[in-house]
Amino acid sequence: MIVEPIHAPNGNDFPLMFAWSADYIFEHGDAYVGITVDPTSIKALQKFNGARYASFVVCESESVGSLRGRGTRRQQCARDVRFEEGLKWDVISQVGALLKSRERSNPMAGFNVQYLYMTSQDAAQTTYINAIGRHARLAGGTPVYDGHVIKSGGRPARIRRCAAAPANGDPRVAVTNAGVPVINVLQQGDVLGSLALRRADE
């Protein structure tokens, strides 16, 4: 089964990996699930269908008042506390765990979901692999995701809304040992810019 945290370059969900892989997925009898992970995409969904998506929100734990007075950057971050992108990591883990579960709420209930693979062009995938994936385990201790296919270099995203993404030279930029197989697919134009992300096979 393929799960894609959907890239949203223009504030709208853009399931690029599905667009490229749909024929393969269908021909092999696999299933696909796309996850909206960008808070700006939630706004776009609500604009598209306000009634259906009215309840969608990714909430900040702190109020605007508690953020005021903590410096310019914190004040800028406090402008829209309804959307905390750092909660996407919980969403990605919980969706994966549900898809592998025997819960009645599992949309794949009745199917034999043997393996769950994540793929994306979004920088969230690399952040998830490095910071979250090794800690996201099912009840039996197995990983939520059994492998990853990264597209276009895999530079990580920021961990939360008020944090900065790792800069060049930061060791968090490169994919570390994820505990599961990781394939990084580069398009030709990304090769030179991704040389610093190379590491030996493990």
Quickly list its features.
202 residues, 7 helices, 11% strand
Structure description:
The chain has helices at residues 16-27, 39-48, 50-53, 64-67, 72-77, 88-100, 124-133, and strands spanning 2-6, 32-36, 117-120, 147-151, 182-185. With 202 residues, it is of the alpha/beta class. A five-stranded parallel sheet has the order 2-1-3-4-5, with helices on both faces. The chain is globular, with a radius of gyration of 18 Å. The chain starts with a strand and ends in a 17-residue tail after the last strand.
Question: Topology, please?
Answer:
Layout: E1 2-6, H1 16-27, E2 32-36, H2 39-48, H3 50-53, H4 64-67, H5 72-77, H6 88-100, E3 117-120, H7 124-133, E4 147-151, E5 182-185
The main β sheet shows up as: 5 strands, parallel
Please report the distance between the alpha carbons of the first and last residues.
24 Å
Give the low-pLDDT segments: 61-70
**What is the approximate shape?**
globular
The H/E string reads EHEHHHHHEHEE
Mean pLDDT: 82
Task: Summarize the model shown.
This protein is of the alpha/beta class. Helix content is 29%, strand content 11%. It has helices at 16-27, 39-48, 50-53, 64-67, 72-77, 88-100, 124-133, and strands at 2-6, 32-36, 117-120, 147-151, 182-185.
